[in-house]
């Protein structure tokens, strides 16, 4: 047996308290006795500790995965192309010597995983935006499920079913029950958002304190405020708790007490500290700021509101999934729990326009596009119609100046039209089909504004790209001379 293997390992178990650390310590002790170098990443109750770097994985001869719960695809992707021995953590605990005796024989090459993510512009792993989007991604199912149930209840009422609220000696109607269940999604979207923002920063120990404290910050009855802290509270508390927990996780208490740090001590200290801070200070302050924002959105003159809507629409269309788009999207989405639906309607219209317009322009002016772009037009139109903006990106990359300019101008105009026509969107849905499932209203205004937006976007693309291609041809001819 070789005496100079470089090994890396990952251990985890369902509880993340005992076996995770016991197996990690046993692997380290046995590897040292055999003369091997090893680094073990533990994914326990305190979160990921002793994280393996890309350089350490690249240099390793073998990877040992002793698992009690599955790794995510992103986690597994780190070990693509490496020789990996994967086993149950319970088996590893029973026979550590067997792990090393059979490692060379049983290790299997982990296949390369696809890293293609259409339309996703890279975001720095530890950036604020990355943490915020982790919270939004977790909150989306709550809003989608809740929004669909609220829309279903409204449709049933329109069809003639009775709507009776629960009261003393009064049985609620079916429509009221469905609507109430739906509104639970909006109620819990903010605590879930705050919890996952904190978890993205500080890992699992930050989750529970952030969830409970974010819920407290939105309980206006307990805080004695007229409004909850809303998404502002979720962002501030999620980030604050996440970074606080990240610092606490660096505390070392010894092998016997270390497992208790993440499962007991960190949640207790964090919840006590931030719970009191939220009740006496952060909650009331954030609630006041949220109340001021809501008052501003509801009372500003229409001219100023149209200007803001134009800006939001332009930002949404500008970089199709990039940081500018995400900033505008996050603002609109975060207002849903406060019952403000017109800003999210801008997302519902503008997100459709870049891909659909690129495809329609390809049909109307094929000479302005390459054979590959023309071949992708049908799929771009179909996918774009269901609020997947990514298919527009190849068209924008091929001719950035005319395509992005056309998208941004038409997106700004469409944003203003959404406000003028009073369009509302309850939750994320199915793009052009949103009015059919009750998420977008009024339906006729939505299709009218979308039609105007697409017409303008296509016209701008044809005009700007035609001018751009002539300039490119002229420049090429000049360079040739």
Topology:
Elements: E1 6-12, H1 19-33, E2 37-44, E3 47-49, H2 54-59, E4 62-67, H3 73-77, E5 83-88, H4 89-94, H5 96-101, H6 103-106, E6 108-109, H7 128-158, H8 174-202, H9 207-217, H10 220-223, H11 230-248, H12 258-299, H13 302-318, H14 323-334, H15 342-350, H16 353-364, H17 371-375, H18 377-384, H19 393-398, H20 400-420, E7 424-425, E8 440-441, H21 443-480
Parallel strand pairs: 1-2, 1-4, 4-5
Antiparallel strand pairs: 2-3, 5-6, 7-8
Helix pairs in contact: 7-8, 7-14, 8-9, 8-11, 9-11, 9-12, 11-12, 13-14, 13-15, 13-20, 14-15, 15-20, 16-18, 16-20, 16-21, 20-21
Overall number of structural domains: 3
- Tell the overall outline: globular
Order of helices and strands: EHEEHEHEHHHEHHHHHHHHHHHHHHEEH
- Estimate percent helicity: 55-70%
Q: Strand share of the residues?
A: 5-15%
Beta-strand segment tally: 8
Described by strand count, sense and barrel closure, the largest sheet is: 6 strands, mixed
Global Rg: 27 Å
Structural class: alpha/beta
Protein name: protein-N(pi)-phosphohistidine--D-fructose phosphotransferase
Domain PTS EIIB type-2: 7-105
Subcellular location: Cell inner membrane
Membrane topology: Multi-pass membrane protein
Folded structure, characterized:
Residues 128-467 form the PTS EIIC type-2 domain. Its main location: membrane. There is one protein chain. The protein is an alpha/beta fold and 481 residues long. It folds into 3 domains: 6-109, Response regulator (Rossmann fold); 128-298, no CATH class; 303-480, no CATH class. It contains 21 helices and 8 strands. A 6-stranded mixed β-sheet has the order 3-2-1-4-5-6. Strands 7-8 form a two-stranded antiparallel ribbon. Helix 9 runs antiparallel to helix 11, helix 15 (342-350) runs antiparallel to helix 20 (400-420) and helix 16 (353-364) crosses helix 20 (400-420). The protein is globular. The protein starts with 5 loop residues before the first strand and ends with a helix. Mean pLDDT is 85; it is low at 113-123.
């Amino acid at each position: 047996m070789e005496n100079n293997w470089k090994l890396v390992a990952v251990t985890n178990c369902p509880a993340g308290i005992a076996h995770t650390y016991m197996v990690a310590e046993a692997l380290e002790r046995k590897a040292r006795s055999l003369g091997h170098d090893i680094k073990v990443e533990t994914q326990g109750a305190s979160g990921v500790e002793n994280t393996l770097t890309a350089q350490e994985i690249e240099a390793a001869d073998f990877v040992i995965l002793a698992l009690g719960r599955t790794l995510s695809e992103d986690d597994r992707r780190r070990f693509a192309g490496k020789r990996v021995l994967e086993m149950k953590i319970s088996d590893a605990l029973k026979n550590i010597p067997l792990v090393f005796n059979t490692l060379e024989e049983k290790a299997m090459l982990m296949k390369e995983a696809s890293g293609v993510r259409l339309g996703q512009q890279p975001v720095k792993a530890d950036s604020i935006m990355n943490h915020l989007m982790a919270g939004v991604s977790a909150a989306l199912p709550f809003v989608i499920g809740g929004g669909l149930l609220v829309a279903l209840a409204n449709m049933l009422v329109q069809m003639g079913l009775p709507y009776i609220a629960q009261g003393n000696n009064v049985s609620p109607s079916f429509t009221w029950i469905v609507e109430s269940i739906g509104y639970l999604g909006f109620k819990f979207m903010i605590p879930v958002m705050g919890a996952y923002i904190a978890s993205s920063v500080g890992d699992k120990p930050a989750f529970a304190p952030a969830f409970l404290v974010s819920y407290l910050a939105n309980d206006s009855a307990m805080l004695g405020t007229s409004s909850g802290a809303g998404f502002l509270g979720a962002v501030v508390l999620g980030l604050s708790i996440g970074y606080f927990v990240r610092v606490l996780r660096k505390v070392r208490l010894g092998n016997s007490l270390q497992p208790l740090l993440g499962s007991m001590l960190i949640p207790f200290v964090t919840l006590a500290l931030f719970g009191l801070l939220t009740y006496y200070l952060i909650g009331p302050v954030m609630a006041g700021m949220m109340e001021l924002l809501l008052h501003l959105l509801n009372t500003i003159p229409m001219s100023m509101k149209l200007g803001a809507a134009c800006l939001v629409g332009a930002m949404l269309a500008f970089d199709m999934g990039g940081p500018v788009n995400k900033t505008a999207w996050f603002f609109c989405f975060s207002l849903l729990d406060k019952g403000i639906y017109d800003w999210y309607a801008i997302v519902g219209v503008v997100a459709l326009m870049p891909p659909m317009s690129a495809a329609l322009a390809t049909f109307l002016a094929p000479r302005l596009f390459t054979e590959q772009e023309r071949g992708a037009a049908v799929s771009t139109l179909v996918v774009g119609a269901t609020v997947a903006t990514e298919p527009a990106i190849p068209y924008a990359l091929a001719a950035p100046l005319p395509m992005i300019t056309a998208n941004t101008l038409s997106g700004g105009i469409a944003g203003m039209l959404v406000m003028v026509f009073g369009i509302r969107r309850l939750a994320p849905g199915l793009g052009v089909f949103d009015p059919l499932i009750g998420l977008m209203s009024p339906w006729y205004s939505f299709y009218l504004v979308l039609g105007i937006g697409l017409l303008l976007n296509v016209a701008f693309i044809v005009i700007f790209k035609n001018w751009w291609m002539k300039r490119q041809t002229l420049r090429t001819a000049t360079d040739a001379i």
